[in-house]
Each structure stands twice: as structure tokens, then as C-alpha cells.
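Reminder to self: keep the SMILES exactly as supplied, no canonicalising. Ligand is adenosine-5'-triphosphate.
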Amino acid sequence: MDTLQFQDVCVNIGENTILKDVSFSLGKGYIVALIGHNGAGKSTIMKTIMGWQEKRDGSISINSINQDESFLAYKKQIAYIPEEPFLLSELTAMQHFQLYGQSYGLDEQELMEKVEHLTKLFEINDKLNEYPESLSKGMRQKVQTICALLPEVALLLIDEPFMGLDIHAANDLERLIKNKANSGTSILLTSHQLERVEDLADKYLMLHKGELIEHGDMKSFEKLTRRTTE
Ligand SMILES: Nc1ncnc2c1ncn2[C@@H]1O[C@H](COP(=O)(O)OP(=O)(O)OP(=O)(O)O)[C@@H](O)[C@H]1O
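C-alpha cells returned for the bound complex:
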């Protein structure tokens, strides 16, 4: 059974049709890249899966739990790293990790071990008591990324995972994403950094003006880009 089923989804914003009848599914443990030009609708797909963007039509389920029928049970299965860090100004980095740990039901010891490991890896272990306003943009992105990596969820959504991260952090994140997928998490990501995505993803979905125009194995996409750039 596929982890995510995104079926016949249409999204309108005002008068504009942003997603036109988009359907795809995501198998357990697969890494799938959403590819397309600026404005193609990639982030809208992410926000619609999260329930932040209303859909006009269609259905979305994760492990057969339908978004419209059991929203809380559905939502517990997702973690999201948005393109822009979305942190609360009144909470420190550590308080963000605790909030995420509690909302996904992690026990205290497991949470602390993961926080220690990930904050050391991303070199922000000396920033645990800082508030977002005193962190750089890249550090805020790291806090947001760690929050989403703490729980074991069925589906991890990542909008532009490498944006704002230095080369070491980007390499670490790439490795963590592969480990997550190997342990059964399905991953949907968007990225304009095609070289990294070609190395990371198993499959791609190509969007153009809100329509899914092509999909397949990442290997066939690599051939396609090579053919068109040679
Ligand atoms: N809040 C909004 N109000 C009006 N139009 C919106 C809104 N959010 C997105 N859109 C429109 O929806 C379309 C898809 O936007 P979306 O952010 O999903 O694109 P994207 O593929 O993620 O682009 P990018 O690569 O630039 O991040 C664009 O035409 C955009 O102008």
C-alpha cells in the first residue's frame, strides 16, 4: 500500500486555478522530488498536504487515513520543513524541540538524545537557549529542520531542503534524509538544485503551471536533462 495518495486534487486561489487535477502516490521509503519552474505549484502541493491550503476538489490520504475525515490522526503522520523558517519568537531553540517532541509523543530521553545528536551535527548545540531573533537565517533553518527530523513519521515534506544551509549542513541533511527513507519514511521534497536532487531522489514528478506533466524514475530524468543540455 502506498504511504501517500494524492488524488484528483484541484486548488483555486481567488479566480486562479493553481493545481489542476493533480494525482500521484508515494510508496513507503521512497524519496520523490517535485520539480518545476517558479510558480509551477510545488509549494502549493506541500501546503495542501499539510492542510494549510484548502483544496476545491480531490482527496488526500496517508496510510489510508483521509485528510477530510480524521485530520488530527492524518496530521500526526507528517512532519514539514517549509521553505522559510516558521519559528515562534517567544520560544528558544530548545523549547521548539520540546514542543515538537511533546506534540508527536516522543519520550523525554529519546527527545534529549536526538536533540543532542542533531544539534551537534548541525553545529548549533551552543544555541539551545537562544531565541529566533538572535539566530542567523541559516541557524533558524537548522532549528526548523531539526524539529521536523525529531519524530518518526510516515511522511516528511521538505520545501527546498538545502536553501540557506552551508555545504557541510547540506551534506549532513542529505545523509539524514537517506537514513530516514531507509527506515521507512516517505519523503517528498522540492528543490531547484537539480544536481543534489538527482543524487538523492528515487523518482520525480514534474509540474508545469499547476499540472503534472511528467513523472518517472530519477535515472530517466538524468538522461533527459543530459540529452537536453548536451
Ligand atoms: N497566497 C497566494 N495568493 C495568490 N496566489 C498565490 C498564493 N500562493 C501561491 N500563489 C500562486 O500559486 C502559483 C503556485 O505557487 P507555488 O508557491 O506553489 O509555486 P512553486 O512551484 O512552489 O514556486 P517556487 O519554485 O517559486 O517556490 C503561483 O502562480 C503563485 O503566484
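Points to follow up:
The two ends are 39 Å apart (CA to CA).
The helical segments are 42-50, 71-75, 93-103, 108-121, 137-149, 167-182, 194-200, 218-229.
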